[in-house]
Amino acid sequence: MTTHDLTSTLSALSAEQYQHSIKGIMRGIERESLRIKDSGAISKNGHPKGVGSALTNGQITTDFSESLLEFITPVSEFPAETLAQLKDLQKFTLEHMGDELLWPISMPCFIDNQDDIVLAQFGSSNTGKMKTLYREGLKNRYGSMMQAISGVHFNISFPETLWQSLHSLQQSEAPLQDFISDGYLGLIRNFKRELWLISYLFGASPALCGSFLQGRETQLPFKKLGKGTLYLEVGTALRLGDLGYTNSAQSSLRVMYNSLDEYVAGLKKAINTPSDIYADLDDYTSEQPKQLNKNILQIENEFYSPIRPKRNAQAGEKPTDALLRAGIEYVEIRALDVNPFSETGIDIEQIHFLDVFLTYCLLKNSPDMQWDEQMSANANLEKVVNEGRAQKLVLNDKNQERTLTSWGNEIFSQLENVAQFMDKQYGVSYYSETISRMASWIDKPQLTYSGRYVNTLVESGLDNGHFALALAKKYKLSHQQTDYQVYSKEWLTHQVQASNEALTKIEQADTTTFKVFLDQYFAQ
Q1: Phi/psi of residue 68, each to 5°?
Q2: Which of 48, 84, 86, 454 is an S-S bond match for 96, by CB 3.0 to 4.6 Å?
């Protein structure tokens, strides 16, 4: 995309012929949550039979372990509908979980031993066995405790009317899909530059249970509370830091976002390069495999990035091949902690904020991002993860020292302009109202999720685990007392039956051995 100033782009898009061009933003949410016993301990029971097959039910599945549920909404233009769907899926699943609860925070607790975390099982098909072996690899590479961390993934795509308007305004001669892919990559670069703001506002994992460390040493300045709670007094999101969903072996991967070819090449190199670290673990060619293969990444999904370019893949197609075939279709935001203050794990205000923030990331100028700038952005994130609510915290903005407060206030002044533009196009006022409210959080860190979280723990004296357990019980009761809003129980039950039938078909259709199946998969 050519250089374009945010103010002039907003002004151009406000012209009559482009009015409402941004209407039609589409979203989907994936929310992860551990199943726990009413004591708080992780469930060792299998995936609830009443919700169907984890392999073939597209809306209720599992992530790493049998106990880590994942609720997936379909794509929708209406945020309230998406949240209602998420609520219905959780209500239905809870009805099939007996006395179990859904853990309402990101960081796990009450896990005495990593062996208590049972790998997700997907049946006897080759596809199902591949999914489980991939998870075996994750366990042996990084440990199961890291994989028990929950998050919320937010998927967003912008309407074709907006892309056509920008294509016209910028007098681009590129094919529209190439222009769209470049636009999404520009969004990703800007998101990475200012990802620290998401951690500051919505980071909700400033505390953890001592059991999570499993005896590991840490240099973080933890304070202690209750029987076993460790918390960072001014921290925001341990899930996004060194103790969370990170992979030190991946720090050497130079995956860049300046062009689609460059991004795909970086990822393909990682899935085809043997790793010195994992060379001693037996792979699928062995009698008792401990991982899929010995490469830096077993498959593309192992790449832990806070944001990913995505394209819906065809059957058997790898994610990068889908991108090369037809370009970027949407982006997946993976940087959100589970919101403990919402029974669905994310609320409407977060969605409104993300709509504005991601539109801002898309419409403002986004120069290429070299490796040293990516490293600088990572360092900013790490600082905010560990000390984001510290007074006068200094970050690195284009190699200049800058306080979080100064930078945050500048971003919000631009977000206010984007919100006003979106309010006008949508005929609403909630975008400006959300941005105005959250702008005050920059100077009042106690209003952020992590600020509220730490204050709640300190004022109540409650252990982190007991705080979360009380929330889990409260939210289960709320789900039980609420009627279905979008789905009916009958429709969800039909999906369960359909998923079980689909699983049987897949298992009966296999004609090769597991080894031959993987030979063919990796030969592609």
Answers
A1: -95, 95
A2: 48
Provide the strand spans (E) within 158-310. Answer: 207-209, 223-225, 229-231, 307-310
Neighbours of 283 (CB within 10 A): 19
Nearest-angstrom CA–CA distance, 311 and 187: 16
The string of pLDDT tens digits covering residues 393-435 is: 999 999 999 999 999 999 999 999 999 999 999 999 999 999 9
Looking only at the bridges linking them, the beta strands covering 101-102 and 307-310 are: unpaired
Q: DSSP readout, 403-423?
A: EHHHHHHHHHHHHHHHHHHHH
Q: How far is CA 273 from CA 127, 265, 377, in A?
A: 23, 12, 26
The residue type of 473 is: K
Q: What is the pTM of this model?
A: 0.97
Which one, of 351, 333, 334, 280, lies nearest residue 86 by Cα?
351
In sequence order, the 6+-apart residues with CB closer than 8 A to the CB of 145 are 108, 111, 114, 117, 212, 214
Return d(Cα 366, Cα 185) in angstroms, integer.
9
Q: Give dist(CA 15, CA 8) in Å, integer.
A: 11
User: For the chain, what are the domain ranges?
Assistant: 6-205+245-369+392-447+471-523
Other beta carbons within 10 Å of 505:
10
Please spell the DSSP secondary structure of 57-85, one letter per residue.
-SSEEESSBTTEEEEEPPPBS-HHHHHHH
- The mean pLDDT value of the chain amounts to 95
Q: Nearest-CA neighbor of 345 among 63, 92, 70? A: 70
Give me the percent of the chain exceeding a pLDDT of 90.
Answer: 90
DSSP string, 366-381: -----HHHHHHHHHHH
- Number of other CB atoms surrounding residue 334 within 10 Å: 18
Sign of CA dihedral 416, 418, 420, 422: negative
Strand partners, 400: 397
Q: How far does the chain reach from its first CA to its final CA, in angstroms?
A: 33
Q: What is the mean pLDDT of residues 209-221?
A: 88
Domain 6-205+245-369+392-447+471-523 matching CATH 3.30.565.10: the answer reads: no
Mean pLDDT lowest among 309-313, 316-320, 499-503: 316-320
Give the 3-state secondary structure percentages of the chain, helix then strand then coil, rounded to 5. Answer: 50, 10, 40
Would you say 496 and 50 are in contact if contact means Cβ atoms under 8 Å apart? yes
CA distances from 331 to 27, 131, 345, 349 (A): 10, 23, 20, 19
Task: Work out the number of other CB atoms within 10 angstroms of the CB of residue 49.
Answer: 11
Residue type, 336: L
Please give the helix or strand (H or E) that residue 351 lies within, else none.
Answer: helix 348-363
Q: How many residues does the chain have?
A: 524
